[in-house]
C-alpha cells in the first residue's frame, strides 16, 4: 500500500529525525568515550628525568602557567604537572592514573581556587583535598606534600572568606600529618590588606613579580621542612641556615 500524499512529509520528517537521533547517539558515544579516556590519562608533564631532587608541581593554571618554574626552583628539578582551569576532582582523577615508576622527592600542590569560584562549598573542596592526599598516600607513600594556600586574586576577592576557611582547614590538616606542610602565600600577595600589583590584567593569574614572591615562599618552605639528608644532596646551601 502506497503512502498517501498527505503522509509523505510526515514520513520524511520522521526518517530525518531518526537519522539525526542516530548521529547524535554515535557522537555522544564517541565524545563520551574520548572524555572518559582523556580524564583517565596521567597528569601532564610526565618526565623522563627521575632522581632524588625531582619535585612535582601539581595544580591548576597557577601551576601550569609558571613558565619560569625550572629556573626558579633550582637547584631542585622542578617538573610542571599543572592543568589550566582544572578543578580538584579533575586533578584527582588524573593523578589516580599516574604511571610514574618512582615518586618525586615532594609534591607542591595548588588547587581549590577554581572549585570555590565554580560554586563548590568549602566542605566539598576540603573533601577533594583529602581525597588527593589519600591517592598520594596510596600511590607514593610518605612523599611530602606542600599545600600552597589559595591566593587572594582580585577577580575572586568576593571569595576571600571561603578561601580563608579553606586555608585554615588545609593548615590544620598539615599540622596533623607528618607528610604535609602548609605554605601561606597570602601575606606576600597583599598590600594594605588588598591584593598588591602581583597579578596579570585579568586579576586572576600571577605576573612576574607574583611568581617571584611565590618562588621565595616555596623555597623557604622546602628549606625548612625537607629532611637534612635530602637537602645535603639537593640543596646543601639551605643547611647553612639550619645549622
β-strand percent reads 5-15%
Which structural category do the helix and sheet elements fall into?
alpha/beta
What would the CATH topology of the largest domain be? Rossmann fold
The quaternary structure here is single chain
Rg, alpha carbons: 24 Å
**Biggest sheet character:** 5 strands, parallel
Can you name the CATH architecture of the largest domain? 3-Layer(aba) Sandwich
Account of the 3D structure:
- This protein is α/β, with parallel strands linked by helices.
- It folds into two domains: 1-39; 47-241, Rossmann fold (3-Layer(aba) Sandwich), CATH 3.40.50.
- The protein is built from nine helices and seven strands, in the order αβααβαβααβαβββαα.
- The strands form two sheets. It has a five-stranded parallel beta sheet, with helices on both faces. Strands 6-7 form a two-stranded antiparallel sheet.
- Helix 4 packs parallel to helix 6 (122-140).
- The radius of gyration is 24 Å and the shape is globular.
Amino acid at each position: 500500500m502506497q503512502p498517501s500524499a498527505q503522509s509523505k512529509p510526515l514520513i520524511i520528517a520522521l526518517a530525518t529525525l531518526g537519522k539525526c537521533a542516530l548521529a547524535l547517539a554515535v557522537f555522544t558515544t564517541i565524545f563520551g568515550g574520548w572524555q572518559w579516556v582523556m580524564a583517565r590519562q596521567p597528569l601532564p608533564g610526565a618526565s623522563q628525568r627521575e632522581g632524588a631532587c625531582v619535585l612535582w608541581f601539581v595544580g591548576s593554571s597557577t601551576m601550569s602557567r609558571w613558565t619560569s618554574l625550572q629556573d626558579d626552583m633550582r637547584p631542585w628539578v622542578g617538573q610542571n604537572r599543572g592543568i589550566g582551569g582544572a578543578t580538584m576532582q579533575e586533578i584527582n582523577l588524573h593523578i589516580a592514573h599516574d604511571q610514574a615508576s618512582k615518586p618525586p622527592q615532594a609534591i607542591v600542590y595548588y588547587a581549590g581556587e577554581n572549585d570555590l569560584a565554580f560554586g563548590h562549598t568549602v566542605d566539598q573542596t576540603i573533601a577533594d583535598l583529602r581525597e588527593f592526599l589519600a591517592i598520594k598516600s596510596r600511590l607514593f607513600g610518605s612523599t611530602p606534600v606542600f599545600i600552597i594556600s589559595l591566593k587572594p586574586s582580585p577577580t575572586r576577592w568576593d571569595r576571600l572568606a571561603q578561601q580563608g576557611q579553606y586555608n585554615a582547614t588545609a593548615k590544620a590538616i598539615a599540622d596533623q600529618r607528618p607528610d604535609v606542610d602548609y605554605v601561606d602565600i597570602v601575606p606576600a600577595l597583599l598590600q594594605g590588606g588588598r591584593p598588591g600589583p602581583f597579578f596579570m590584567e585579568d586579576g586572576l593569574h600571577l605576573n612576574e613579580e607574583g611568581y617571584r614572591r611565590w618562588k621565595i615562599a616555596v623555597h623557604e618552605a622546602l628549606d625548612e621542612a625537607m629532611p637534612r639528608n635530602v637537602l645535603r644532596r639537593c640543596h646543601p646551601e639551605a643547611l647553612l641556615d639550619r645549622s
